[in-house]
Amino acid sequence: MNQQLDKQTYAGVVCRCCRQAIPVPAIVVSMESELANEKSSLGEGSQGRVFSLRCRACDKEMPYRTNDIVDFEGMPRPRIWSARRKSGSGSTDLSRAASA
Question: Which pTM value belongs to this model?
Answer without folding.
Answer: 0.64
